[in-house]
C-alpha cells in the first residue's frame, strides 16, 4: 500500500511556518503581507477557489482584498483595476482569477500586472526568470508540489521524473523546476503530452510521475513503476465527485507514495500562492 502524501498535512505544516514569520514581521512593526484577488463574473469554481484563497490569508495572518467585478466588465475597466493594484503600496501581490469571461483577453491582462506583484508567477518576465533559475515567483501548482515533496523528505535528485501534460501553468514549469540544479530539482525529466507515442512505457520508467492531463483516472496501475512517487494534479468532476488524473484505488497497490484527490496537490497550490505573497512582502 502506497504512502498517502497528504496535501492537508503538508499545507498545515507550511501554513504554520508562514504564520510564525508573519508574527515575527508584526513584532518588528512591519505590516502583514497583503494579497489581493480580482474575480470577474460568476463562475462557481472560480468563486470557490478565490474564497479558499481569502480563507487561507486569514488563517496565516495575511491581509486580503477581494475585488469582485461583474460578468460584463470591459477589458479597459479590468486593466484599470490591475493598474490600481500595481500602484497600491499596501498590496504586496495580486492575482486575476482565471478563466476570465470569454470577451476578455487574459494575455493582455497578464502582461499588465507588475511582475513584482505577479504572485501567480505567470508573467513572461517571471516565467523567464524561473527558466533561468533567477529569484522569482514560481507558478503556484508546481511550487506547491515541490513544497509537498520537501515536507515528506522526498528529493527529486537523480530520479527519472515523467511529467504528463505540458500546460504553461502546470506541466511545463514543473518539468523545468524538476530539472534545475537546485534543492528540489536535479531530476532527469521527460515531458509527455498528447502526441507522445510510448506514454505507458515512459510512465513505467518513472521514479516520480506527475499527472497533469485533465482526464479522469487516465493513469492506471499498469503504467506505474512499483514504488514510484505519484503526484496527481488532475481535478475532474465525475458524477458530482472530484477525481484525479490517476486511478487512485488501483495505483495505491503499486505506487510507493501518492497524492489523493481531493486533499492533495490542490491544497498545496494555495500554499504556493501564500509563499509567493510572503516573498513579495519580504522584498518590498
Ligand atoms: N490541483 C491544482 O491545483 C490544479 C491546478 C491547475 C490545474 N489542475 C488540473 O490539472 C489538470 C491539468 O490542468 P492543465 O491546466 O495543465 O491542463 P491543460 O492546459 O488542458 O493541459 C493538459 C495537458 O495534458 C496533455 N494531454 C491531454 N491528453 C493527453 C493524453 N491522452 N496523453 C498525454 N497527455 C495528454 C495535453 O497535451 P497537448 O499539449 O498535446 O494538448 C496538455 O499538455 C486539469 O484536471 C486541471 O483541472 C489542478
What is shown here, in short?
The chain is α/β, with parallel strands linked by helices. The chain has ten helices and eleven strands.
Walk me through this protein's architecture.
The chain is α/β, with parallel strands linked by helices. It folds into 2 domains: 29-114, Rossmann fold, CATH 3.40.50.10860; 140-266, NAD(P)-binding Rossmann-like Domain (Rossmann fold), CATH 3.40.50.720. The chain is built from 10 helices and 11 strands. The strands form 3 sheets. It has a 6-stranded parallel sheet. The chain has a 3-stranded parallel sheet with strand order 3-2-4, with helices on both faces. β9 and β10 (241-243) form a beta hairpin. The model has no long low-confidence stretch (mean pLDDT 97). The chain binds NADP nicotinamide-adenine-dinucleotide phosphate. NADP nicotinamide-adenine-dinucleotide phosphate (NAP) binds at residues 141, 164-167, 169-171, 192-196, 199, 212-215, 233-236, 265-266, 269. NADP nicotinamide-adenine-dinucleotide phosphate binds next to α10.
Amino acid at each position: 500500500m502506497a504512502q498517502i502524501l497528504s496535501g492537508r498535512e503538508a499545507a498545515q505544516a507550511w501554513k504554520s511556518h508562514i504564520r510564525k514569520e508573519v508574527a515575527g514581521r508584526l513584532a518588528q512593526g512591519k505590516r502583514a503581507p497583503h494579497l489581493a484577488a480580482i474575480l470577474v463574473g460568476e463562475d462557481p469554481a472560480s468563486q470557490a477557489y478565490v474564497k479558499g484563497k481569502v480563507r487561507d490569508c486569514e488563517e496565516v495572518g495575511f491581509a486580503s482584498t477581494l475585488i469582485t467585478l461583474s460578468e460584463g466588465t470591459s477589458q479597459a475597466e479590468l486593466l484599470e483595476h490591475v493598474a490600481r493594484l500595481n500602484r497600491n503600496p499596501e498590496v504586496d501581490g495580486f492575482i486575476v482569477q482565471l478563466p476570465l469571461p470569454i470577451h476578455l483577453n487574459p494575455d493582455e491582462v497578464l502582461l499588465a500586472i507588475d511582475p513584482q506583484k505577479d504572485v501567480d508567477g505567470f508573467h513572461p518576465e517571471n516565467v523567464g526568470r524561473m527558466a533561468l533559475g533567477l529569484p522569482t515567483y514560481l507558478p503556484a501548482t508546481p511550487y506547491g508540489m515541490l513544497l509537498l515533496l520537501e515536507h515528506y523528505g522526498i528529493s527529486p535528485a537523480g530520479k527519472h521524473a515523467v511529467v504528463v501534460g505540458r500546460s504553461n501553468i502546470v506541466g511545463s514549469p514543473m518539468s523545468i523546476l524538476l530539472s534545475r540544479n537546485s534543492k528540489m530539482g536535479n531530476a532527469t525529466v521527460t515531458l509527455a503530452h498528447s502526441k507522445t507515442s510510448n506514454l505507458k512505457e515512459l510512465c513505467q520508467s518513472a521514479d516520480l510521475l506527475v499527472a497533469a492531463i485533465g482526464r479522469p483516472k487516465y493513469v492506471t496501475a499498469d503504467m506505474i513503476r512499483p514504488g514510484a512517487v505519484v503526484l496527481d494534479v488532475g481535478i475532474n468532476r465525475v458524477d458530482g465527485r472530484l477525481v484525479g488524473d490517476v486511478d487512485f484505488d488501483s495505483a495505491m497497490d503499486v505506487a510507493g507514495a501518492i497524492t489523493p484527490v481531493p486533499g492533495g496537490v490542490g491544497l498545496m497550490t494555495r500554499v504556493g500562492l501564500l509563499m509567493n505573497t510572503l516573498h513579495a512582502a519580504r522584498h518590498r
